[in-house]
Specification:
The longest helix has about 50 residues. By secondary structure, the chain is mainly α.
Length: about 100
Amino acid sequence: MDSNFLLSILLYLNIVSFILGYLFSNIRATTYALDNKYDKNIRQKNSNIVSTINIEDDKYVVAIDTSNIEKKYDTLGDVKQTTENISNSIDKLKNLKR
């Protein structure tokens, strides 16, 4: 076979493969754009559905039964008087730093 013939076949195959690649990329880009448009429509419909949900948050307590509650702390809320003043507390903090 002639080398010019082989080169012309290779050139022809190269051009055909380039054209096929270009066509396939355009087809893929078109389907990708359609998919995104479809996804956006679904997201918009779902966001409209979510925004229409109303939760009733008005609740009223009528009676509280405390007969079954166990009391664990007897001294809760008792006030304790100390003789320490602020200077004693500052001295204790200074000693902790050392």
